[in-house]
Amino acid sequence: MEISILYINFINITAFVFFFIWRYFQETKYIKALVSTLANEKDLDFILESFPDGYSSFEKTLSTTIDDLVLVAKEELNGLKVEHLEENDYTLAWIHEVKTPLTSMKLMIDSLDDRNAQKKLEVEWLRIHLLLDQQLHNTRLSTIEKDYMIEEVDIQKVLHMEIKEFQAWCIQKNIGFDLENLEVKVLSDPKWLAFIVRQVISNAVKYSHADSEIHIRTDRDDTGHIILMIRDSGTGISQADLPRIFEKAFTGTNGRQTTASTGMGLYLAKNVAEQIGIHVLASSNIGVGSTFSLRFPLKNEIVKILGR
């Protein structure tokens, strides 16, 4: 009798173990397929196409519910994309509208007989122009992959053009430029490179002391990369602020002391640089000044950028 009971218990336990294993694989098959789909697919359309249907009634209900949620999310995302594009179009149209009176203002400033008033107005005009330029490139940043062309760029030519733009501001603060070893060419996009240089020089002029110099030169590192260095001897950046200077809207200690800082210049410069393969580094000390280094990609690295 005892043997029969033990035998029955053994049969029951064995059957339960097999049933448990079978149910485990049945229940986890759908979950694994679901996790695999979400892990491998990022596009909503592909997720909907490859979504598992499920095996049990519960899994089918869950699958249908998730499908509906994904469709709702897709509709909301498409709505946001349309809204974003419309906002970008409006911003670009507004910028181009503002440029017309700004150009007229520049012509009127140039025609003034009072040289002192002319110089002061030129500096204020330049600040407005730079802010407008920042907003324009911020709007275009999301579609930069459609708006760049890598070619051989003369660094010296780009720098001379950008320095000329800051002439009025530099004269006001009596700031000079020391240029060294700039007769080099790099592979980059001339328009976006000029924008990056403009943001760095703008910061250098803004935070430089009066009657000082901004030093600009190029060098090569051990791997053959060309490096453009822009160094000022201004107020400098604290070590606490230095890791965050490329964050959006971060103004830091120096920025809080002036209303002229928006915290967007270096953020945009860094983001644009990453898109075209330029690596931006910064080093600084309070009271000593700041150095910004732009490391340009090699030819084989450019191929990877173009293939993205």
Helix and strand topology:
Blueprint: H1 2-40, H2 44-49, H3 57-110, H4 115-140, E1 151-154, H5 155-165, H6 167-173, E2 176-180, E3 185-188, H7 190-207, E4 213-220, E5 226-231, H8 252-256, H9 265-275, E6 279-285, E7 289-295, H10 299-306
Parallel strand pairs: 2-4
Antiparallel strand pairs: 1-3, 4-5, 5-7, 6-7
In short:
With 308 residues, the protein is α+β, with helices and mostly antiparallel strands.
What does this structure look like?
- The protein has 308 residues and is an alpha+beta fold.
- It folds into 2 domains: 1-111, no CATH class; 115-306, Histidine kinase-like ATPase, C-terminal domain (Heat Shock Protein 90, 2-Layer Sandwich), CATH 3.30.565.
- It is 60% helix and 13% strand.
- The chain has 10 helices and 7 strands.
- The protein has helices spanning 2-40, 44-49, 57-110, 115-140, 155-165, 167-173, 190-207, 252-256, 265-275, 299-306; strands at 151-154, 176-180, 185-188, 213-220, 226-231, 279-285, 289-295.
- The strands form 2 sheets. Strands 2-4-5-7-6 form a 5-stranded mixed beta sheet, covered by helices on one side.
- A hairpin with a 5-residue loop joins strand 4 (213-220) and strand 5.
- Helix 5 packs across helix 7.
- The mean pLDDT is 83.
